[in-house]
């Protein structure tokens, strides 16, 4: 490139005139491609960061969620975004949550099981230290004779978050880890109910150049499941470091290319605990919800070889038709499947308030979900670049 440039600018004007247009197109394509490739690299860096041990599953122990919120705020500030209200990028709230901060040991018939791989503790379980004989209830369930513990055999270990504590303990064990009917279990597990766990939504905006009170909103939850004991955490790469990576990429883009409408970015906390962050925001909005022209909820964006699905497609047919028209013209995704209304992510409470919203998630790729295998290196990010372009194009058409 430097050689070509030097040749052109060393007095060869005839050559420059002859090849100026294709050369400039090449320059534009080359640097344009690299500019987006850099964004993809930024997305990968974001996912690697948020899934690292430092952030401990962005959950309820070791300040994982708090560290993630600070990271997102720092990125918003670095792009030059402004807070929604006053000078605060965060909207704090609190709730109860059951946590497992330390002891996490299970032995089955004398054999030590590996947390996350061989077993998980049901999220609502209370802590217990016990050695108990097991009685078979059915092919997948065993009960301790003490009446304080139950064993559930599972084809896949999938964890979650609970706001309450049961008066007994459930140990979920992978069917692959059980060779014969188990007879004795030894458990040493500690739980801690946090009655007033503090979390925060992280919000920022790019003010519109002509209609700042009309808004396009992008949302994505940054929390995941956190850790189970002192050694095991759930990385949450696809769910939902991938959505946050897209959110930050879009924030970076719109900060450099402000449109006539305002673009708002909301990173929600506590989605995994029951959509609590988005519920709190819709009940305590920092701007009138009726100002939202359209809302995109970004969740599970790490794949895409099998296309994507859009929740609320059937209740917003015109917008879905526009989305498919753009996709057909540019061939961004292999297909976009319509789905009806569903309370399965942070768009839900906005929909209930009458805000037009889509929740888009990708399909295909790794089956890892709510487990220790949802790691960054398993994310192909097949459709990430094209999804970015699709969001930009859709919003451009929508607001003109």
The CATH topology of the largest domain comes to Aminopeptidase
The main pleated sheet reads as:
8 strands, mixed
Number of strands: 18
Put simply, the count of helices is: 8
CATH architecture of the largest domain: 3-Layer(aba) Sandwich
Q: CATH superfamily assignment of the largest domain?
A: Zn peptidases
Spans of at least 5 consecutive residues whose pLDDT stays below 50 are 1-38
In terms of DSSP E residues, the strand content is 25-35%
Helical coverage, percent range: 25-40%
Backbone CA Rg: 25 Å
CATH class of the largest domain: Alpha Beta
Number of domains: 2
Topology pattern, helix = H, strand = E: HHHEEEEEEEEEEEEEHEHEEHEHEH
User: Average pLDDT value?
Assistant: 91
- Computed structural class: alpha/beta
Description:
It holds the Pfam family Peptidase_M28. Residues 201-393 form the Peptidase M28 domain. It is a single chain. With 400 residues, this protein is of the alpha/beta class. It has 2 domains: 41-98 and 194-398, Aminopeptidase; 103-189, Glucose Oxidase, domain 1 (3-Layer(bba) Sandwich), CATH 3.50.30. Helices cover 31% and strands 28% of the residues. The protein has 8 helices and 18 strands. It has helices at 2-8, 13-50, 64-79, 237-256, 276-283, 317-330, 348-352, 384-398, and strands at residues 90-99, 104-108, 111-112, 119-121, 128-138, 141-144, 149-154, 169-174, 184-189, 192-206, 211-221, 227-228, 232-233, 261-268, 292-298, 308-311, 336-339, 357-362. The strands form 3 sheets. The protein has an 8-stranded mixed sheet with strand order 1-10-14-11-15-18-16-17, sandwiched between helices. An 8-stranded mixed sheet has the order 3-2-9-5-6-7-8-4, with no helix packed on it. A two-stranded antiparallel sheet has the order 12-13. Strand 5 and strand 6 form a beta hairpin. Helix 3 packs parallel to helix 4 and helix 6 (317-330) crosses helix 8. The model is unreliable at 1-38 (pLDDT under 50).
